[in-house]
Specification:
- By secondary structure, the protein is mainly beta.
- The chain folds into three domains: 2-117, Immunoglobulins (Immunoglobulin-like), CATH 2.60.40; 130-232, TonB-dependent receptor, plug domain (Ferric Hydroxamate Uptake Protein, Chain A, domain 1, Beta Complex); 237-813, Maltoporin, Chain A (Beta Barrel).
- 6% of the residues lie in helices and 65% in strands.
- It has five helices and 47 strands.
- It has a 22-stranded antiparallel beta barrel. A six-stranded mixed beta sheet has the order 10-11-17-18-15-16, with no helix packed on it. Strands 1, 2, 5, 8 and 9 form a five-stranded mixed beta sheet that branches.
- 39% of the residues are buried.
Length: 820
């Protein structure tokens, strides 16, 4: 009932704003005219009404199919018109005086096409690798030669402020809980599934990465550390165009990928699509040492030493097809379908040695683990954008449907030996089948209303429905007979509905000071049903998430931004699933249906100098923090990992980002961050306090050489730091790359080596209470890549279409075992 009242108030507020805007326009008059080229009317030309005194923009309009534009005026004065359309020269009309007459009809306007060499798309003008905006950091993927042949995960890993832990979880400025979007739409994935998607997404498909630490109220409140939006390449060419990319990589094992991207656009519609294939072989080497400690005497009871070698194979296809239909100059309709299909398998062999308190070998286990996985997902998005009038009032609508279908067939076999290698017990075998289906439905509507004096009001509503159905069927081979293992088998169904409403208001307070205030309310209704044991739980809560921004431009060289936001991190769908997933006989992971959401308050103060140097001071306090916790059974020598709401975390950090064009041929970006994390709270019924100060550096230097060559030297380093209850040792990475433009700039060859010194080997420890564990993990990270891209086009550049959907938080929480 509370949420219904809130939605009604938001709608009433929006309707009131509509009516006020309409009333203000009753006294307006119209300036109108037509635009032609070679005697043919031009549609979708952007016409800007400028103040003749200072060329400041007053209003904007688009021409219709007859070439006609109409702009409403309410203030007398002298004005100037600017017509702008890619493929044509900019053109000015005026100035003219408007004295308040009912209608001002201007003469016909002729635009001149650009010369052929200027209208064609080339790659001679290169964007900087890093762009720093007021509310986000932008990474231009193609600006880095070392991104050739890389996948999305590897590109993210070398982006400013982003780090990836041993399990593939993404952190931003040392804070976990990042929500990952693609083209403005959430992936709805987390954990192993997000890793699988990113590793199977080719860098050749990516255009930009947007990093937002404190997104405004328009975005879902999900994402403790912020939002990362991965933007794929979108053609801006009128006519037919596309590209073909092929890449090969070699580490210890090989990988290869291919991608085709096609686009056809005219003044009425835009059809686009791509299909990609990715094949990769990888491995992991994991070493774990544990000491089992008696809770009373605090003496070591036994030692546990394990080394596991794991090999993996993945073969995936992904594709996209979409249509943008420009119904009128003010209305655009869009439809986009995305599909992903991955098949893979993995095999691991582990040697496990168990010692007594004097470190004498008691027995050993040889553990074999095999899995065969299939995972496919598809999504469809319908979107509508309607410009209500020339003042900039805009209405957008999105509807999304997503489905994930995954299945893992698992086999575990354990052979037991004594200290001299003699068999002491029968081999036990466990077979598992773990299917899971997730369906997601979302719809949202957003309204933008520019007001007087450059103020702006925004409002919106969103609703989402999620159903996840997960099954775990285990069978045990006992005395040659296959029997159902009811202690491990389970069936879990989870349903969730989130309703949200938001308002946002921004305006300049003076010529130097701007403000923005936002408020978002979200209601969560959830039900979990563990059908095997007939255990259920229900959740129903409403939370309000304020945001505030204050921007001050002191002078041309210095500007400041102060912002605040409250964020939420809901448990991943897989984390709520109480199933048991096995690494081996002694190590497993289990979900927790009683997890609560965690909340974070973020405050940032940033200073930008000459648009190239940005310094940011941030503070974050997180309550009910969701983290992996290690639990042990001393009698059975078993260790299992479970997520819990364990503690409160405080982080204070300082970051510096600097981009500099040293010479005409040398540019570079340096990102530095130092942060102190302190975690305090009860873990395993014992009060724990853990803290660490971490330094991180991310450096990238680009060199533009002669004859179409360019090169890059990049790398990152992270000192010792905390990842929840794990203390991770320092590690780093160095990359080099070279690219060459060929075939009259239609082709690009990229050669790179990632992690030259194979230094990204993760080591860490977890010590609290009776837990004392050390681990070491390294993967097939040192990869030499070569890729070739060929671009073809027949047409002229045009404004890019809107391909953004409305699904936000839900996709970042899907968890289906990918068997990576």
């Amino acid at each position: 009932m509370q949420m219904k009242n809130l939605l009604k108030k938001a709608l009433l507020f929006s309707v009131t704003a509509f009516s006020l805007g309409a009333k203000a326009q009753q006294n307006a008059s119209i300036v109108t005219g037509k635009i032609f080229s070679n005697q043919q009317p031009l549609e979708s030309v952007m016409v800007n009404l400028l103040n003749a005194k200072d060329s400041s923009k007053v209003k904007t309009a688009l021409t219709d199919k007859t070439g006609t534009y109409s702009i409403q005026l309410t203030t007398k004065g002298k004005y100037l018109l600017l017509a702008n359309m890619v493929g044509f020269e900019k053109s000015y009309l005026g100035p003219f005086d408007w004295n308040g007459s009912n209608q001002e009809k201007l003469p016909n306007w002729q635009l001149i096409p650009l010369a052929k060499g200027l209208a064609e798309v080339t790659v001679s003008s290169k964007k900087p690798l890093i762009e720093q905006k007021a509310d986000r950091t932008i990474v231009n993927v193609d600006a880095s030669p070392t991104n050739g042949g890389a996948n999305a995960m590897e590109i993210l890993e070398k982006s400013p402020g982003i780090s990836v832990d041993k399990d593939g979880n993404i952190s931003l400025k040392g804070k976990e809980g990042v929500v990952v979007y693609m083209d403005g739409r959430p992936t709805y994935l987390s954990g192993p599934d997000l890793v699988n998607l990113l590793k199977n997404t080719q860098g050749a498909q990516l255009d930009q990465i947007e990093i937002m630490t404190n997104p405004p109220a328009r975005y879902d409140a999900a994402g403790n550390a912020g939002v990362i939006n991965i933007k794929t390449k979108k053609s801006k060419i009128v006519g037919f165009n596309g590209s073909v990319t092929a890449g090969y990589g070699q580490g210890v094992y090989s990988r290869n990928n291919q991608n085709i991207q096609l686009n056809y656009r005219n003044n009425k519609f835009n059809v686009f699509g791509n299909i990609g294939r990715n094949e990769r072989i990888g491995f992991q080497n994991i070493a774990i040492d544990r000491r089992f400690i008696d809770g009373g005497s605090k003496q070591i009871v036994s030692f546990f030493e394990q080394i596991t070698d794991r090999s993996t194979y993945n073969h995936s296809y992904n594709g996209k097809i979409g249509l943008d239909f420009y119904a009128t100059s003010k209305t655009t309709l869009g439809l986009v379908y995305n599909g992903f299909n991955n098949k893979g398998n993995g095999n691991s062999i582990g040697d496990i040695n168990i010692f007594n308190s004097q470190h004498n070998l008691i027995n050993k286990t040889i553990a074999y683990n095999g899995n065969v996985d299939s995972w496919k997902n598809s999504s469809i998005n319908f979107n509508l954008r309607h410009v209500l009038d020339s003042t900039g009032r805009e209405l957008t609508f999105d509807a999304d449907y997503l489905t994930y279908d995954g299945n893992t067939n698992l086999f575990l076999n354990n052979a037991y030996q004594n200290s001299i290698g003699q068999t002491v017990a029968k081999t036990d075998s466990l077979f598992g089948k773990l299917p899971q289906i997730i369906n997601i439905y979302t719809a949202k509507i957003d309204y933008v209303h520019p007001l007087k004096n450059k103020a702006k009001f925004e409002a919106g509503l969103k609703t989402s429905f999620v159903t996840t159905d997960a099954n775990a069927i285990y069978d045990t081979l006992f005395n040659g007979v296959m029997m159902r293992d009811y202690n491990r088998s389970n069936h879990f169904v989870y349903k969730e509905n989130i309703n949200a409403a938001y308002i946002n208001y921004s305006r300049p307070l003076s010529t130097k000071l701007n403000m923005q205030l936002g408020l978002r309310a979200e209601q969560t209704i959830a039900k979990g049903d563990q059908r095997t044991t007939n255990v259920q739980f229900n959740r129903n809560y409403i939370q309000v998430f304020p945001t505030a921004y204050l921007q001050y431009a002191a002078n041309e060289k210095n500007s400041f931004v102060l912002n605040y936001g409250k964020r939420i991190r809901r448990p991943d769908y897989q984390s709520l699933n109480p199933f048991v997933e096995f690494l081996d006989r002694y190590t497993y992971e289990q979900g927790n249906p009683y997890l609560k959401p965690q909340f974070a308050h973020n405050i940032e103060l940033s200073h930008t100098y000459k648009s190239f140097l940005t310094t940011t001071l941030n503070f974050t306090k997180t309550t009910d923090m969701i983290q992996q916790v290690i639990m042990q059974d001393d009698a059975k020598n078993e260790t299992f990992i479970k997520q819990e709401n364990i503690a409160t975390q405080q982080q204070i950090g300082l970051s510096i980002n600097a981009f500099n064009q040293y010479t005409k041929w040398w540019s570079g970006n340096i990102y530095l961050n130092v942060a102190n994390n302190k975690l305090t709270g009860p873990i395993n019924n014992e009060m724990v306090s853990i803290s660490a100060t971490t330094f991180m550096a991310n450096i990238s230097q680009q060199f533009k050489l002669s004859k179409g060559y360019s090169a890059e030297l990049s790398g990152f380093y992270r000192s010792e730091g905390l990842e929840g209850v794990f203390r991770i040792k320092p590690f780093g990475i160095v990359n080099i790359g070279l690219s060459k433009q060929v075939m009259k700039n239609k082709g690009t060859i990229r050669i790179s080596v990632r992690d030259i010194f194979w230094s990204q080997k993760i080591k860490g420890e977890s010590k609290y209470g009776t837990v004392d564990a050390n681990f070491r993990q390294f993967n097939d990270n040192r990869i030499a890549n070569i890729s070739f891209t060929y671009r073809f086009s027949k047409g002229k550049a045009a404004a890019g279409p809107r391909k953004r959907g409305g699904a936000d938080d839900e996709q970042s929480r899907v968890g289906v075992d990918s068997g990576k």
